[in-house]
Design a protein that fits this description.
With 279 residues, the protein is an alpha/beta fold. It folds into 2 domains: 119 residues, Dihydroxyacetone kinase, domain 1 (Rossmann fold), CATH 3.40.50; 121 residues, 2-Layer Sandwich (Hypothetical Protein Tm841, Chain: A,domain 3), CATH 3.30.1180.10. The strands form 3 sheets. It has a 6-stranded mixed β-sheet with strand order 10-9-8-13-11-12, with helices on both faces. Strands 2-1-6-7 form a 4-stranded parallel β-sheet, sandwiched between helices. Helix 2 packs across helix 3 and helix 4 runs antiparallel to helix 5. The longest helix is centred in the middle third of the chain and has 16 residues.
Length: 279
């Protein structure tokens, strides 16, 4: 029996991070559009060049979710598929995967497919993919893998820290005047993915040092991270990511902290100096 773990490209997982026999991994790319430019969030995307082009473009920009056909192509590749989708509250990606599941099961009734709405993105999805990989490696049945994956999904949090707000403004997710003022004042926004999968703002502050302090406080308030995995994704902010990693390791002995670069979609929303923390 073959297995495939599939995530949309808002998962910042890097190639080679999953390795269990008979398990393959696939990414279904989202797209970022700005005027006549379209950036496909796959392994060929030059994220830095995309960010530079988006900063230069003054008009509206948007993201587009994968089509059901793109998900269906992935589901055809294995007997058992686990699909990990970004929050359905902010994207049609999950619904697209569900439509694809129904299409494939009509065509191949013996296949097994489960779609998970993470109600999150970034490092949350990385942790879930690694957990699914581990569960499959334990030799569990498809139903057991699905049940434990859903339970684990409900136990994960995602914090974020943003220093730039242009794309949120261009998408209509932030008031234009407020976004301009926040950028001019060197403001940082600290927030988290809510239980409904929406972006919930927790703090507004100035400067990265204070921002990291607030992130640590939020981590302390929500979970004992001793011996637990944490994933920090950063958009062009390796210094901030490394400082946060050091602070987390000082606070919780045995914590496993992984630093990753954001992919195209997460870079689009996190923007320059943005941090995403899955734990």
């Amino acid at each position: 029996m073959t297995w495939r773990i599939i995530a949309d490209s808002s998962c910042d997982l890097q190639e080679g991070m999953l390795c269990v026999e008979n398990v393959s991994f696939g990414i279904v790319p989202l797209k970022i559009r700005a005027g006549e430019n379209e950036f496909i969030d796959d392994e060929t995307l030059n994220v830095a060049a995309m960010m530079e082009a988006l900063e230069a473009y003054q008009g509206p920009s948007s993201s587009a979710c994968p089509s059901p056909d793109e998900w269906a192509e992935q589901f055809r590749m294995a007997d058992c598929s686990i699909a990990i989708a970004m929050t359905s509250a902010l994207s049609g990606t999950y619904n697209s995967a569900v439509v694809a599941k129904e299409m494939i099961l009509e065509e191949f009734p013996d296949k097994k497919i489960h779609v998970i709405d993470t109600k999150s993105t970034g490092g949350h999805m990385v942790l879930l993919a690694k957990k699914v990989n581990q569960l499959i490696g334990m030799g569990l049945s498809f139903e057991e893998v699905c049940q434990q994956a859903e339970e684990y999904n409900d136990s994960i949090y995602l914090l974020f820290a943003l220093a730039s707000f242009d794309n949120l403004v261009k998408n209509g997710r932030m008031n234009k005047v407020l976004g301009l003022l926040a950028s001019k004042l060197n403001m940082r926004a600290v927030g988290m993915a809510s239980e409904k999968g929406e972006l919930a703002l927790l703090h507004k502050t100035r400067g990265e040092a204070r921002c990291i302090t607030l992130l640590l406080e939020e981590l302390k308030n929500r979970k004992d991270l001793t011996g637990k995995p944490v994933v920090i994704s950063h958009c062009q902010n390796p210094v901030g990511a490394k400082l946060l990693k050091l602070k987390i390791e000082e606070q919780w002995p045995g914590v496993e902290v992984t630093i990753l670069k954001t992919h195209g979609l997460t870079s689009y929303y996190a923007q320059h100096q943005g941090l995403l923390i899955g734990f």
